[in-house]
Design goal:
mainly alpha
């Protein structure tokens, strides 16, 4: 059995060495391809008439009311829903030290998120808020 394993490993090693790099890299052709390439900016894109048209870049929020609500329900006293809504700084230690304002702030945040989920679902007014209260 040992001879078989040794023979198998030698054959496998030989096959891997011969098939290790079947492709050859030609640096000159790569450099030529880079020299012929044109630079494209995300802000200027050509349309069907081959004219430059500026692209409007808008930042959309990845946060949703449902995601914030779930985080608030399970780990609201630690401020995880505020982290999901991009709150920064000393805010998380405040939530941890007071257990979410003794549960009062977490409960109010939870109800606000429920009303947002039932309504339009837009939580952008609660995002990037580093204040003690989620509402402004």
């Amino acid at each position: 059995m040992k001879k078989f394993l040794l023979l198998f490993s030698v054959v496998l090693l030989g096959a891997s060495v011969t098939m290790a790099n079947p492709y050859k890299v030609d640096d000159a052709s790569i450099e030529a391809a880079f020299e012929q390439a044109t630079e494209v900016s995300i802000l200027n894109v050509t349309d069907a008439n081959n004219t430059l048209a500026p692209v409007n870049v808008t930042q959309t929020s990845a946060a949703s009311a449902g995601g914030a609500l779930i985080r608030c329900w399970f780990l609201g006293s630690l401020g995880w829903h505020r982290a999901y809504l991009n709150g920064e700084g000393f805010l998380f230690s405040k939530y941890c030290w007071t257990c979410g304002g003794l549960g009062i702030l977490t409960t109010i945040d939870w109800w606000l998120l429920i009303f947002k989920l039932i309504g339009d679902g837009d939580v952008s007014q609660y995002e990037n808020n580093d204040g003690w209260f989620m509402w402004k």
